Amino acid sequence: SWRSALVVLLTTPAVLMGVVLGLTFFGTTLNIQSFLGAIMATGVAVANAILLVSFAEQYRKRGHSSFEAAREGAQSRARPILMTGLAMMVGMLPMALGIMEGGEQVAPLGQAVIGGLLFATVSSLLILPAAYAILEKRGGIQSPSLDPDDPSSIHYEPSDVTVPN
User: Fold this and answer.
1) Looking at the domain assignment, is residue 19 inside a domain?
2) Measured by CB atoms within 10 angstroms of the end CB, which terminus of the chain is less buried, N or C?
């Protein structure tokens, strides 16, 4: 649904804020490397958000409220989200510190990824479930279907033709 997509996209501002604050903390400017890092961090953050929202959506479709679904989704997906975020941040630490040869050139990439994922991981576990619970509170349990052969679709047209066996 559009609401679920909107909830997933709410991680993007957290990533961008984290990238800017991370670069400020490290004393680096925006450049091509830091933009690439922002894109990498956004990809990981959106993947984590999709993981959480899809799990919460499955739970909600079983008849639970959107608040319960958001809480259950955040609790059950917290460890995979933390593991993904921390693994990426720790993996980028040598690059961000620029300790290898030519490291000053690629350091902004690692710094942007670390800053973006730090904020995105916290946002995914705290803000995203709240936004999901609020936005999905008004939504129905069943997703709308556009399939003309699906009886629950608004485009369904029953046919009078019977298929011989």
Assistant:
1) yes
2) C
Q: Please tell me the distance from the alpha carbon of residue 48 to that of residue 59, in angstroms, as a whole number.
A: 17
Q: Which domain holds residue 118?
A: 2-136
CATH of the domain at 66: 1.20.1640.10
Q: Is 63 exposed, middle or buried (0-12, 13-18, 19+ CB in 10 A)?
A: exposed
| Number of Cβ atoms within 10 Å of the Cβ of 37 | 29
Q: How many domains does one find in the chain?
A: 1
Query: Is 11 a member of any domain?
Result: yes
Taking the C-alpha atoms of residue 13 and residue 21, their distance in angstroms, rounded to an integer, is: 12
Alpha carbons 63 and 150: distance in angstroms, whole number: 21
